[in-house]
Amino acid sequence: MTSSDEELAHSPRRVRRGTVIAAGAVAVAMLAGLLVLAHRARHHVAGTAPPLPAGAIIASGSCGLDLTRVPGEGSGPLDGGLLVTDAHISSVDRPRFASVAAARSWLPADAPVIVLRIGQIARAYPLAILQWHEVVNDTVAGRPLAITYCPLCNTAAAYSRLVAGKPVMLQSSGALLSGAAVLTAAGTQQLWSQATGEALQGVPAPLTWVPSDTVSLAGAAAADPGLSVLERPYPGFDYNQSPYGDVATPGSQPRLFVGWVDEHLDPKARLVGVVVRGAARAWQYRALASHRVRNDSVAGQPVVVVYRPDVTGIGNSSDLRHAPRVGAAAVYAVSVAGRTLHSQLAGPQAMRD
Length: 353
What we know:
By secondary structure, this protein is mainly β. It has six helices and 27 strands. The radius of gyration is 19 Å and the shape is globular.
């Protein structure tokens, strides 16, 4: 039975209970929850990377629950922090979509959704669904894409499903690398980091990152009147319930994590971050909350960091309907023909130079 057939026959099943089948030597320093253009940083050296177009989104998400530092030495990603569990997490392979009004019959207006905009098509993928399935395999405007989410490190990212020029079906492997999900192609031993798309095993290239945004359902609908929203694979299942309870509770320790945690920063601090031409930068939500638009630069690239306060937090409550608002953030490129734009708020969903 395929995972698509299983979607129609059974309700969601999650058995990532923490039963460790194998764990590698802890060896990798990883910033779990950091959404990055890792492929761009690896394949362009300083001075040769093409300039980003103005308004290009280069990072977004409700991302960054587990900010951890793992000391040690190892020869590669699989030597450090890889924890394999007995999890079976079914991906959504035949997504169906409905109107915003239909989605509001079960999903709160301030619930977080990942938004993809490809040409004239705008689609929203509720994190309430992704916290249970972790991967949605979709085709948008002819492009095979995977929308992914790790509910343990709260990292949302979209990737192309083209591997060596051929489309694959991605799914959660059940394994964790430094507390963050590891993706696999169905029926293979290929592994990638969900947080960065980095190739870990059986494949020479990283996944290609696709710009997406994480906002509230209401915010997404206001920005895109023709927005369609992913339907629940199992309409009778309560997707607002959290599979990991209040995993995002501030001050708590990371779950299913092997290694030492540097507590100079709250392990559950929410942040958004980027890597540009090999330089990494992250911003905490707590600091962004008082300055919702922040003009900055990373490796000479002017950026603007935008914080939206109207988004509830996955994992901050066992029930999303009662979750507090924790916000979401995104990072955009802000230069046109060599001129840097200085952005400021011009309304709830708008900015101006």
